[in-house]
Structures are given as C-alpha cells and as structure tokens.
Input
Amino acid sequence: MSVWAVARRIAAKDLRIEARSRVLVNQVLPFSGVVMVLFAFALDKASSDIPRQVAPGLVWLATVFSLLVMIQRVFAVERDDGALDALRVAGVTPAGLFLGKTIGLAVQLLALDLVLVVLAVILFDTAVAGLAAAGLLAVTVVVAGTALAGVGTLYGGLAAGAKGRDTLLPLLMLPVVVPVLIGATRSTEAAFGTGGIGMTEGWAWVALVGAFAALAVGGGALAFGALLEE
Amino acid sequence: MADVVDLLDVVAVIGSFPALAGATLRVEPGEIVLLRGPNGAGKTSLLRLCAGLLPVVRGSATVCGVDLTVDRRAVRRRVGLLGHANGLYADLTVAENVAFWGATVGATRDEVDAALVRLGVGGRLAGVPVGRLSAGQRRRTALACLVVRRATLWLLDEPHAGLDAAGRDELDATLRQAVQAGATVLIASHELERAAGLATRTVEVVGGQVVGVAP
Amino acid sequence: MGRAMPAPSTTRNVTGTRFTRGLGIATLASIGLLAVLGLVVTPADAVQRNGVRIMYVHVPSVWLAYLAFVVTGVASAAYLWPRTRSLTWDRIAGASAEIGVLYVAITLVTGSLWGRLSWGRYWVWDARLTTTALLFVTYLGYLAVRGLGGTHPQRARRSALVAMFAVVEIPLVHFSVQRWNTLHQEESIAKGEINGLMLFAIFWGVVAFTLLYVWLLLHRQRVMAMEDAVEDRGLDRALVERRAEALVGRT
Output
C-alpha cells in the first residue's frame, strides 16, 4: 500500500474506534470543559475583565492539556493488545502510520476546539465579530490542530515504545508546542478582538503556526520509523 | 531450496538480559517445527527475532532470504506472527479487524470472508466488537487475521491457548493447509501432545539456545 | 552504573591523558585568573556597582551553553549521516548536552540574580530569557530520552533524532517568543560604561569556560565509552549465565 493509502486506513480506523468508544466525547470534552471552568476560578472572574482578555489563551491551554490525554489514548489503542507489533510485522510504512494517526488526531482536535471556542464565548463573554474573524478563527483551529496533532503523534510514538514512558511525554512535548500556543492564541485574540492586535497580524501568526505544522508533519513522517523501532 | 530460517549463534537482548544466547536453528521450506522448553527459555524471543521485531546483537540470521543483520524490516510482510497478544482492536468488529489486517497485503473481500468462515468467526460473530468476545473467539479472530496475511513463514506463540477442542482442530487444519500452500511454520507451545501430532520436527529451547532435537 | 566492575584488566581504566591533565591545569589556572580579574582587577560599575561582576560568569556561560548545544546538534547529525555513523558521535552529543544543561543552569541562576540587582526583578519575560529557560527544559528532555534504555545504537538513533528536532524547534521558539513580547531592554552588555578591562574579563571568562568545557567533554565522553564497554562486558557475563541454564536443564 502507498503511504497515503496506509494513512487513510489508519485514520479511518482510529476515527471509527473513537466513534464506537466515544472516549473523546465522554471523557476528553468534559475534562477540557472542567479545565476552562477551573481557569475562571483561578482568575477571579467576578472582579475583573481578566478572563475575557485571556480567554483565547485558555482555549489553547485547555487544548494542549487535552492533547496529552488524547495522545495517550490514541497510542494505548495500539499498545493494549499488541497491535503496534502487528503493524510492524505487517510492514506498514511508518510514514503512513504517522500521517494516519496525525490525521485522526487532528480531526478529533478540530472537534474539541470548536467546543472550546463556544465555551469561551459562553463562559468568558467573548464574541467572534464578523465573517472575516470567523474565517481567521476557522483557519487557526485547522492549522494549529494539525501542528499539535503532528507534534503529539511524533512524541507520542517515541513514548509509546515501552511502558513507563508516559510521564516523559509532557516534558518532551510542552516546550515544543510553545510556538503553536503563542501563535494560535494571538490569532484567536485577533478573531475575538480582545488582544488589541489586528486581523493582519492574526494572519501572520497563523502563517507561523502553519510553518510549524509543515515542519512537524514533514519531520514526523521522516523520523517516525526510527523512533518507533525498538 | 534455501532454508526459510537460518540462525547461527544468534544473540538478542531485552534490556540487558540475553533472551537469546547463541541460538542456532535451520528450518527448511514446508516444515512445521515445534519449539518446546520451559518458561523463559527464549521461545517467544526466537519467534520475535524471526519476525524482525528483535534486533540481532551477535551472530547471523537469515529469514525468508533476508539478512536480518542488514535490514530486519525487510523480512516483515513475508512473515506472520501470532504472539501472546492478539493484535486486535477491541472496539472494531471481528470482520473489521480481519479486513484491516487483510488490507495490509491487499486481501480481497472474498478472502476475508473465507478466513472468517474457516476459523468459525463468520456469520453473526463477524459483526460483534472484538472486546465483547471470549478469549477463544478472540484467538480465532487473530488466526483469521493471520490467514488473510498469506505469509510464507508463520510464527505462532502458544496458538492453542484459550481455544476449545473444535478451535484446536480448526487451527491444525488451517496450518496443514497453509503448509500445503507452501508456507513454513514455527510453533512455540507447551501443549506438547497436541502440537507434536502436527509438527514434522521438535526442537528444545533452553537458556536462550536451541539445544537439540528432542525425542 | 550500579553494576560491579569486572576484575581489573589490561585496559586502561582512567579517563585522563597527559593532554587532559595539562588542559585541566590550564583550566584551573584560567579560572583562577578569571576570579582575580572579575573580583579584584576590574572596577565596580557606576550604575550596577559590584553587581556587574556577575557578568563575567553569566555571559561566558550562556555563550558556552549555546556552543555545547551546537556541538550536540552537529554530533547528532554526524551520527545520523550513514558515512560518519559512530557511537563516539553519540557520546559526544550526550556529553555536550549534559555540560550545556549545566551551563544553562548557571546562566539562569546568575541571570536572575543580576536581574534582581539591576532591574529589581528576578525574572522578566523577554525573548532571550524565555528561550533560554525553554532550552533548559528541552535538553532536560533530551537527556531523559538518552536514559530510556535499549541497545546503544537504539539510544543513539533515538536521541540524535530528538536533538535534530530541538535544532529545528529552538529558532521557532525564539522567533515566536520574540514576536510575543518585545518589551525587552537592549543588549545588557551594551548598557552602561564598559571599559576595556571589563570587556577583557568577559573575554577571559569565555576562554576559561571553553577550556573547562573541553576538559569536561573529553572526560565525560570517555566515561560514557567506559560505561558502554562495561555494559557490553556485562552482556558477556550474562551470556555465560544464560547458557548455563541449558546445562542445568539437561541434567
């Protein structure tokens, strides 16, 4: 099978598993919702305008925390019954496996972020003003989701090799996602109109995140085989 | 014809433990070789090494004409491994699992259906998520996945475990048929009577070595 | 390594050579001279007063930290390149990263102390500080990956890839943090009156820390080679034990 055929099958498989098990819907979404509410407590909502101003950042922080949970789930599926070994014996091309898992994860992140944006609007009194802002936000969610899914799959694969490595994932991944966190937060601020930056600058940030996504996905496809190999 | 498996003084490690400590084994095409030996003797490691999952640290190893010391990934696709784990996705149905693994070698829908029927997991069972099956039914599903893979070398680790009497008969018949179709089989098993009736040869694995032909 | 060393053999079990001993003496002497330069010879700054003396440690350590990570990157690339693949490159990469982490730690501690003295705050969120802190965490992660186990080539390939990711990622992190917050002061070195003597002390600090870096790198890299050799010899011993199981099993 070609790389893309493998990627499609893996992504379809992962999404089908999610559709059946509903781990994202039943566990990750409530978790991210709780995180958003906890942020409001920590930021003292009653007495200030702070939560409204930092809402875009909270959306992406909650995304990154949820991503950690999702990566562990996505690789537990492969590890629980030895499917990862079976994939290796079946000679499934690692680049295809990487792209497939990245696509599956990106689609789930997309769903998560749509919910988080809505939550930000409801909980923190923000609003997406106009079609241009909505467009910027939509592109941000797609591009940042792809970048995070790529990085997550890359380091998740490294951590999936053996047991007892799960705790390594946050240490490796969180410093790396800083550009995505900053870029996505800035462009979301532009879309919400809360950060005092214009739409043009918002698009510039999306471009930065896009460059990151290209590097993460390209580098992951190249390196995944070597990382997965034990 | 060249040997399907040709291991010479192979050392393989898990962590720093030498799971294989100089294993030598030759298997000719069409053989069904039974590996027996105590727990921790290195049977599983031997099978995993042949599947290209364990690197060769020392010695030489050629499997299906592929030199494992050069590129152990190249041997994959040609071998099928049924390990202790079944390699199934619990949330997918039996048919979906078998179709997924079949797709890795381009198996047709008919081949998938045939494999399901052959291992007795067709019909109503085919639509049940694997997570809801009994251990024996899961084992059968895993075997069906192996059948659709059409490997030249079958590596089976305790394949009888969890199977009922009918399942064992189906397994034996499946293996005989695979050999007739040109496959070679390596089985690690504690069910000596069962496997001995099937095997063309039995070897003993102890201390990470193949210590010889058992009576 | 917790394991017992095998009986003393003919192989040399020290990491020093005549060269490293000479280098060690030169390192000590140059650090001594740096202390004299930094604490006695150079004058106190008009604005920062004695706080300026932190610079003679801070600036050289941050330069050396970056140098160490560049060496890690280059050595990792050399390992990944098939023609130059050698575990020596892997050990140089690992040793250099360890020293780099040490230097970054010194940088962060001295930097925040200096910041407290001259800005009244231990920490400001400017791009260079933030990137340096992330650099610290990133290479802690790299060292954790080195400790994951497996065979030596597995360790080498895995960590070399992680080092490559870091090389790609650090500029992006720096760029994004810079765009994120540009409230920063100008180059701290350019502020205030810096006379020739002070500049010389900083330069001398770079010389002394470079000597220290090379000395540490050579020793650490050799210790790592010995650890690997001990593990290999441990395998020989384990193989003998493992094979003995077969003898017991047969009788």
In short: The longest strand of chain B covers residues 17-27.
